Amino acid sequence: MKRTRFTDEQIIGILAEHEAGAKCADLCRKHGMSEGTFYNWKAKFGGMTVPEAKRLKTLEDENATHNHIYLSSFFDAFPQDAIGGSSKALAAKRNILVDWGSHAPISTDLDGQKKFFRARS
User: Fold this and answer.
1) Per-residue pLDDT tens for 40-57?
2) What H or E segment, with its residue span, contains residue 13?
3) From the CA atom positions of the chain, what is the Rg in Å?
4) Residue 57 CA to chain centroid, in angstroms?
């Protein structure tokens, strides 16, 4: 997953500066970010306080964990002969991409290993 340079608290602080009257271009230059990033943050965090952002992050993490557990139990129910063949070199590569909405899509291979990883965009 992409690492960010700013914490949620810093982002909310930057947005608060904008609400106090600072210009977007000045804030972007001061903090070293693009205007597109600023407007993405405004769409996601606009009007939030720091405790609300922390709660949102906690809920998103819990949902991601729950979805991984659900997928794991889903693949445990698959018959092993349907997942992979006797020769993995001859078996076709099969991937499933699951989109959970607010998170990046989760991709998993069906070779019997049940590995979960996020697709990079």
Assistant:
1) 999 988 888 888 888 888
2) helix 8-19
3) 20
4) 11
- Is a pLDDT exceeding 60 seen at residue 103? yes
Q: Residues 9, 13, 15, CA angle at the centre, nearest 5°?
A: 120
| Dist. CA 78–CA 89, nearest whole Å | 21
Cα–Cα separations (whole angstroms), residue 72 to 77, 82, 104, 120? 9, 16, 18, 21
CA atoms of 31 and 24, how far apart (whole Å): 11
Q: Which residues contact 83 (CB under 8 A, 6 or more apart)?
A: 75, 110, 111, 112
* Cα 15–Cα 99–Cα 11 angle in degrees, nearest 5: 10
